[in-house]
Amino acid sequence: MDSRLITIFAMVAVIVLCFYSVGTGSLSVFVLMIVFFAGVFAIERSDLIAAGAIALYFSFLAPWFLPAALTISNALMGLYALITFGGILMGRVIPSGGRAANWLAYLYMAVLVFLMAMRGSGFRILGGDTWGGTYYLTQFAAVGFFLTIGANSLVPAAWRKLIFVMMMFSAVRPLADSLFFLTDGAISQQYMLVKAEVGGLQLGMLSLGNTDLTNDVFRLHSASQLGILIILAAMYGRARARLSTFVTLVLWGVGFVLCGIAGYRANMIQLVLLPVFYVLVGRQPVRLARLVGVGVACGIIYVLLLAVTPHLPGPVQRMVSILPGTEVSRAADISGRSTVEWRLRLWRQAAEGIPEHFWIGKGLVFKRAEYETLRLITNVAPDNYDYQIWSREYHNGPLALMLDLGFPGALISTLLMLALIREGVQCLKREWHDESLRCFYHVFLAYLVSAIIMFWLSFGDVRSMMGFLFIGAVLRGLWYANLRAAAEAPPVAAEPETKALPPGSGSWTGYPLPRPSWRERAPRPALEPR
User: Fold this and answer.
1) What's the whole-model pTM score?
2) Rounded to an integer, what distance in angstroms lies between the CA atom of residue 68 and that of residue 226?
3) What is the DSSP string of 467-504?
4) pLDDT exceeds 70 at position 165
């Protein structure tokens, strides 16, 4: 249909709706018009929706009007996936990425649908005795975003800005938590816009209130992700030779301090894995000298930590207490060792449910009766084993996959993680038109590999799959932006054949040398990686 006819039709429809709204005295029609035009804008500029989903992912912005466990980023990812899938149904062709990862993503979604059918969907509006269906929505949104990111048309310059905007927004949650703790919980209105980690806030208030009683140290849990992203930014700047050695070390120090404030000992392991996997997944063959250099650097840092650990703050001491030979305070030592014992007991109790849920997992939703029972129990602390198992917080990635998804779901999830790594390494080793995008890709691929390793070694749950798929989508977006930049770049003219020219001829005389025709130019690269 002609665009002019569409415009005329829309104007007539708006005029009719306005008269109808005034005549009936109802404002709902105006609201529907706003929603309609917002939907039209979303369809036309779906690239901005994808950019918003990426920029806000680590901010955990979740206004009060959104369902629980759903953030703005999750909603934007789901909206973008729906719009793009609609375009596919209408015949639009988009790059689809690697076949293995795509098929496994579809199978993973099928497992979730099967669990919804067997264990309940968790949507209260549909009735039933299960709640928590938004967890399924976030998983579907992540899978759809991963599968449809190829439709994003952001140029390389926009991607470079977008990555840094994402890193800046990751400071929103730590700032919200800091305001809460600095005011002893008096100011909590910020959590009407930011998703709160209730368990971390409770432990923080207990530590601030009576450290001697709890044998714990105060920790700002949400600072962990911000510290990791700052270190990734330092790695990118160094790879691009845009940062000096001094600035790079300063950024690494800031990231280390933020990870230390969080107090997670697993962060100490990940800080070692990041540079190691950065070297291992590089484009060039792994060189022993580079690995030795990383090992020497880690050794020097280890020796320095042995000397300065007694003088570090409590949460930082707790993080480095995983290193052998470090001298930490009594509170940091008890805090670290007690969580190890607590996790072992939790794992043993949770593992007893594997035979019952071996083929069909527990799913991601919970029964209303169980929730009401726990509400009647006073003083339900976050370290209660029954509460942790009920809330699916096993603090163990493989155990979570087996219990919540069953063996088939755990197998598909594992294969999907491997497929993400395989696809990432293959794309990194191809030719890149934009070097800055390649450096971003390299850094985030190392982050993905280290996060998956930590999922198997230390901590994780089924919701961690959403994070892996998100990073996989970012990697795909960077790769497709690079391919589009290569396809849109003007072709390089081939050098003419050298022939004996008569005296006085040549380009300097005002007669240009012959240029190759368009048939002789190299074909543009395809948008889909093989």
Assistant:
1) 0.83
2) 23
3) HHHHHHHHHHHHHHHHHHHHHHSPPPPPPPPP-PPPTT
4) yes
